[in-house]
């Protein structure tokens, strides 16, 4: 097993970006000696942009130092970090994908270590790609960039004598605010029921032997700990009154501006009426428990609401791979300020508390020591009375309240979905704008006309999708594949590299590999399960011209001649088109999920200059949502199809602006799928 990360050696130290250190940290944490580390020299060897590790950290690790030219071509086609399992001919790219694979394989070798627990509930930690999950994007893209920049700025400040204040990045604040949320817990009720039964049994047994009832009662409501292989789950028993008080405080914190306005109005009214007295409700937060019997009575009446878990880890109450990655980032940030955590305590109290807890975990401590992390220095810096004289300080972002009001914290833990749902008047208004601007869909016909059929009987049975799909879907899937495959055959030449983006189980790519044996076919897919299904079919067909990449689409950076995708969802369609335009590659694209289009860190809408000059973003989203209303027989079917054509005309115009000849046509027969548009583009230099 080969792992490729960025890094180079100089003056007895190893310089690496934060993502590379995260790979090394997880590699060492898992004791993953199955994997050989290859540190690839970066093109821009600017040591200021990297952090350092001592060469001694690699003393017991199988590793090599390589230059770009020494890296296999298949690996060069994707962004580092990468893990390559030569046995299955799959290149896995991206920080989260690489780390997840290391953990999974090491767990298979040593199941007793429970490493799979690091992948979270149902193995979902950092599984979704950055385009879909704001949480993955924060861990994989945003935080390493923001923290690296902050570390650079801090290092540069040591050359100045005057005091400098640094603004904490919004990405770091987003993590801080996330820790303020109650912890997410899957199977929440099940966990709590089991704990209540355990508490009730223990209380009856222990209370009868307790000499000091007061001490026992006091300790009863203290935090409790469940020790697990990699962490400790902490929870507390709360009295209903305490819980209501806590919830009131939480409500007041969230709605303090609204409450303040209401209080001011109430006070003005009281003054006008000459009544300054305030009526208060009885204090129900203090429940009298004077003896063992009253405690047992309270315990026996406990409900699920009486169990409260402590948000100790980034994804909830148990440590996951995300905590290991984030620990590396935050460790180096604290190292840059000589572990004087008091400088950030006021702004980042939750992160500091999380850091305090992590350094107490035995396995994490051992990993830090093995890699030469100054964990003792970090622990000393975390002491509240530690205050060092320094010439730097930190402030919250100037627009912090706007950021907090406008950022939906839950977006970093769930798949981001468009929240815009236009009404019929919104759709009518957007269509009126299009009509006023004189924009009309540019529709043509398939380059092969109606002759798009393939000889399925002449193919190997495994190349046919019938074994992978329900019977009722097979015929329509074959028709979809025929339309795209015949279009690619008309464009591709011997020796071309054809990339099937969002390849899923490989239905299209495998057919193309079978039809175009003199072309190389790359399957690019983020979902491991889908790619594994494709791998099995490729192996059974003994196709030597197929190569598989498990990665986010934007991590694939190889050169290619033709890009294809069948029903890439929403923004993914535009990412495929963007890749093709950047490579001046031909494309055959069948879009899907028009309602899923929205601005991302990679793609903005509208796409073409013509549409940008004509329609606002919100109206464009309206067209996308209307374009999803294309089910046969519904009232808005014709309107939905028209909006589909408008969105795809925008895409076609973008390609035309880049020197392409583009055809917007339909799959034949139209009934093979409601999303039956097909964009076919060839660059003029290829004509």
UniProtKB/TrEMBL annotation:
It comes from the Eukaryota. Residues 250-284 are annotated as: Disordered. Residues 476-598 form the Methyltransferase domain. Residues 269-282 have a biased composition (Polar residues). Belongs to the GSTCD family. PANTHER family: GLUTATHIONE S-TRANSFERASE C-TERMINAL DOMAIN-CONTAINING PROTEIN (PTHR13369:SF0), PTHR13369. This is Methyltransferase domain-containing protein. It comes from Sinanodonta woodiana. The lineage of its organism: Eukaryota, Metazoa, Spiralia, Lophotrochozoa, Mollusca.
């Amino acid at each position: 097993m080969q792992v490729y990360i960025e890094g180079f050696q100089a003056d007895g130290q190893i310089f690496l970006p934060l993502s590379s250190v995260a790979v090394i940290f997880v590699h060492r944490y898992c004791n993953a000696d199955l994997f050989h580390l290859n540190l690839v020299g970066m093109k821009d060897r600017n040591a200021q942009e990297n952090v350092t590790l001592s060469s001694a950290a690699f003393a017991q690790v199988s590793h090599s130092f390589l230059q770009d030219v020494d890296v296999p071509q298949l690996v060069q086609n994707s962004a580092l970090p990468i893990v390559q399992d030569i046995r299955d001919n799959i290149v896995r790219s991206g920080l989260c994908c690489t780390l997840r694979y290391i953990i999974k394989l090491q767990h298979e070798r040593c199941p007793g270590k429970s490493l799979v627990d690091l992948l979270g509930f149902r193995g979902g930690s950092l599984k979704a790609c950055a385009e879909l999950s704001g949480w993955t994007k924060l861990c994989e893209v945003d935080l390493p960039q923001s923290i690296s920049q902050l570390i650079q700025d801090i290092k540069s400040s040591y050359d100045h004598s005057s005091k400098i204040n640094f603004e904490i990045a919004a990405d770091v604040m987003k993590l801080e605010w996330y820790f303020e949320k109650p912890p997410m817990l899957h199977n929440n009720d099940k966990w709590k029921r089991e704990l209540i039964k355990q508490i009730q049994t223990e209380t009856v047994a222990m209370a009868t032997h307790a000499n000091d009832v007061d001490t026992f009662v006091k300790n009863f409501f203290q935090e409790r700990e469940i020790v697990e292989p990699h962490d400790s789950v902490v929870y507390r028993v709360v009295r209903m009154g305490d819980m209501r008080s806590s919830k009131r405080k939480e409500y007041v914190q969230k709605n303090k501006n609204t409450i303040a306005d209401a209080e001011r109005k109430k006070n003005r009214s009281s003054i006008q009426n000459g009544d300054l007295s305030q009526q208060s409700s009885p204090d129900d937060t203090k429940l009298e428990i004077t003896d063992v019997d009253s405690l047992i009575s309270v315990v026996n009446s406990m409900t699920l609401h009486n169990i409260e878990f402590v948000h100790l880890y980034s994804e909830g109450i148990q440590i996951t791979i995300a905590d290991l990655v984030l620990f590396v980032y935050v460790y180096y940030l604290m190292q840059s300020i000589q572990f004087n955590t008091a400088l950030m305590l006021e702004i980042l109290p939750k992160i500091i508390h999380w850091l305090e807890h992590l350094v107490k975990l035995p396995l994490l401590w051992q990993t830090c020591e093995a890699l030469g992390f100054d964990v003792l220095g970090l622990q000393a810096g975390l002491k509240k009375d530690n205050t060092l004289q320094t010439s730097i300080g930190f402030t919250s972002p100037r627009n912090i309240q706007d950021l907090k009001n406008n950022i939906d914290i839950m977006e970093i833990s769930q798949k981001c979905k468009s929240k815009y749902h236009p009404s019929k008047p919104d759709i009518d208004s957007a269509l009126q704008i299009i009509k006023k601007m004189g924009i009309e869909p540019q529709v043509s016909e398939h380059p092969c006309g109606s002759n798009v059929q393939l000889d399925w009987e002449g193919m190997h049975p495994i190349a046919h999708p019938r074994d992978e799909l329900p019977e009722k879907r097979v015929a329509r899937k074959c028709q979809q594949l025929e339309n795209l495959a015949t279009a690619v055959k008309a464009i591709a030449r011997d020796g071309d590299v054809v990339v099937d983006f969002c390849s899923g189980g490989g239905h299209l790519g495998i057919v193309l590999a079978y039809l175009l044996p003199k072309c190389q076919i790359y399957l690019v897919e983020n979902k491991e399960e889908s790619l594994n299904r494709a791998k099995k079919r490729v192996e059974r067909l003994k196709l030597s011209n197929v190569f598989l990449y498990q990665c986010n689409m934007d991590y694939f950076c190889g050169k290619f001649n033709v890009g294809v995708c069948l029903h890439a969802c929403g923004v993914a369609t535009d990412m495929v088109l963007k890749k093709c335009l950047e490579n001046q590659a031909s494309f055959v694209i069948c879009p899907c999920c028009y309602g899923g289009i929205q601005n991302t860190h990679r793609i903005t809408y509208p796409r073409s200059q013509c549409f940008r000059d004509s329609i606002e973003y919100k109206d464009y989203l309206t067209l996308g949502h209307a374009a999803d209303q294309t089910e046969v027989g519904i009232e808005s079917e014709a309107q939905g199809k028209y909006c589909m054509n408008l969105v795809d005309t925008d895409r076609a115009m973008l390609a035309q602006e880049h020197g392409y000849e583009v055809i917007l046509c339909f799959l034949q027969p139209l009934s093979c799928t409601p999303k039956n548009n097909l964009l076919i583009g060839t660059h003029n230099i290829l004509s």
